[in-house]
Amino acid sequence: MIEMKQDALVFSFPEVHRDAVLRVDFQRTFRIPDDERDYSLPPGLGSFPLRHVDDFAERVPESWVRHGGVVFPMYQSEAMWLCFSALQGYPFAVKVATGKINAVTGESWKDGLNRNPQDYVVIPEQPWLDGYCVEEGVIRQFVAMPLGVGYSVEEQVTGQAEHGGLQLSVYPLKKEIWERIISRRGRKSYSLMMGEPAMASVSADYDMGLAPGGRMKQKIYTDHRDFEDWDLRQTSRCFVHIANSLVWRSVTGEAPPTVPLTAEEYTRAGLPWFDLLDGDKAALAGAEKLNGVKSVVELGKEKGDVPVPENVSVTPENIVKLRHGLGKDQVREGEF
Hints:
With 336 residues, the chain is α+β, with helices and mostly antiparallel strands. The protein has helices spanning 62-67, 153-158, 175-185, 245-252, 263-268, 288-291, 296-303, and strands at residues 2-5, 8-12, 21-29, 38-39, 51-52, 70-74, 79-86, 92-98, 101-102, 121-123, 128-129, 131-135, 138-146, 166-172, 208-217, 236-244, 273-277, 319-323. Strands 1, 2, 3, 4, 7, 11, 12, 13 and 15 form a nine-stranded mixed β-sheet that branches. Strands 5, 6, 8, 9, 10, 14 and 16 form a seven-stranded mixed β-sheet that branches. The protein is globular, with a radius of gyration of 19 Å.
């Protein structure tokens, strides 16, 4: 079952276990500089407003209605990240694609889970996903760009601008494996975490895709469980559309969120960036296909275009160290 609660998607599998509940929150943030430096984690600046596509069927493209799902707005060159939180720490395997290109492997969408190579992230070990897995310990940030202009990963990999948005597929751990875990450790009290709540010229098209931005220090963790532990009979899938912020009001009647701060403005104010302390947890090596796609700034230079309005390098001095594990210390919040 998939529900929309407080601008987040909640996946629940009551037929598997009452604890099998996963919250996925789409967090606003600023775009980190795309200058080939590896930056720490930017903050969460609140959730994007999330709405059901079916509520606006007469005002959105027919392809959106056909896919169903939910929609949220982004400005051109705005950045975002995914926050995962699981009730009681129940484990999930989550596949994330943009434009039906897997954000972990760079391969076209395939049904089911695949271990070789691993094409999913593991919750709760993976609290966040900020972008495409390009190297071990490095991602390239998710940055919104209009479909049809060549910047999205979908267009760079397939040569087509067909799908856009994000696609999520969630698989729970098998009930008997979870019961074995909690019988050993006892039940713990976890809550579903809540994110606390100048752009370039923007195309008037509805559809937005995600493109690779700057480099960020983030591991995509290796699945240490037996592959047979995942309940492949149970899955929930959702299509998440991204609307151009300029047409959000015409679709929903609501104003889009304000334009976020730039990385330079945020850093100059002395506000915190974040590093996750995870010891020596094993991480995936990164996908050759994703490492080969061009970043927004790199491709813009080739096109003789300026796809982002500012790309000033910064040197963060206020870096907060976060402990790996469930709890309040996982929430990356900007302080305003």
